[in-house]
Design goal:
This protein is mainly α and 64 residues long. It contains three helices and two strands; from the N terminus they run E-H-H-E-H. The chain has helices spanning 6-14, 21-32, 40-51; strands at 2-4, 36-38. It is globular, with a radius of gyration of 13 Å.
């Protein structure tokens, strides 16, 4: 099992070029084997980054 840290989740979504080749391979392998996970606290940390204005979402809910 591969447990993703908060910054990995953010980089994977918004800036995959910031991930190393090893990290990208591990994520791909984890996806293939259905063995990726993250801590619940990562969702809270991401929410706090949005609240603090350090992350932003440019996609409206209607577009989702």
């Amino acid at each position: 099992m591969i447990i993703c840290d908060t910054h990995v989740l953010i980089f994977w979504q918004d800036a995959p070029d910031r991930l190393s080749e090893n990290a990208k391979e591990a994520l791909s392998l984890g996806l293939d084997k259905n063995s990726l996970a993250c801590s619940d606290i990562s969702f809270w940390e991401i929410a706090m980054l949005f609240k603090a204005g350090r992350l932003r979402n440019d996609i409206s809910a209607e577009r989702l």
